[in-house]
Structures are given as C-alpha cells and as structure tokens.
Design goal:
Oligomer: single chain
Number of helices: 3
Structural class: alpha+beta
Number of strands: 4
Strand content: 35-45%
Largest sheet: 2 strands, antiparallel
C-alpha cells in the first residue's frame, strides 16, 4: 500500500516534470500466438467471414532500453529501475547523480 511520503525529484531535462511523480515509459515488442476462427455466412447476397480470436499467448517480450517522458530521456531504463525498492534517502542521492550524469549528455538549450 502506498503512503503519502513526498517523492524525491528526478526532473525530465526537457519539460521539468518529476518523472518519479508522473512516470516515464519505454517501448516493448511482443510476439504472440493465437488462433483465428473464420465463420462464413451470407448477408445481402454477399459472402461474409466473421472472425474471432482465442488462445492468445505471449511467446516473447522484449523491453526497449530507452526511456521517454515528453522526449527521449538521457537515462537508460536499467539506470532508472535501479531506484526501485531503494530507501528514499538513497533515491535522493542517486537522483542527484543521474541528474549530474545527464548534464554532460544534453545539448545546450
């Protein structure tokens, strides 16, 4: 259960939003199997094929390493996920280190 402790800051270098508050995303690719059933019928003198699917099963899932807020973030997904389950005091210092790392990677605005 979540408590109401304020979250440390990790601002998006592009829009300033705290990604530890608003979240961030990465893209994933999935490969899946399923069975498509096609049932023929006629309607208004036309052949129709009604289709439904079942047996959907993910067989492979790959997460991208790049992260996004409003634009591409300078931190890889693995670097941000290192904050997961960290004590908040540690998150503050780790966030500061991430911000400092990003300063050298960002073009001048």
């Amino acid at each position: 259960m979540a408590d109401h402790t304020p979250l440390p800051e990790l601002p998006c270098p592009h829009c300033g939003a705290n990604i530890l508050l608003v979240g961030f995303h990465n893209n994933c690719t999935e490969w899946a199997t399923l069975c498509e059933h096609h049932h023929p019928f006629t309607s208004t003198e036309r052949l129709r094929l009604r289709r439904y699917q079942d047996g959907y099963k993910v067989i492979r899932h790959e997460c991208g390493i790049q992260t996004y807020c409003c634009r591409l973030l300078p931190w890889l997904r693995s670097r941000i996920l290192e904050l997961d389950d960290m004590l908040l005091a540690g998150v503050e210092s780790a966030s500061a280190a991430l911000i400092e790392e990003a300063r050298g990677d960002l073009p001048d605005a």
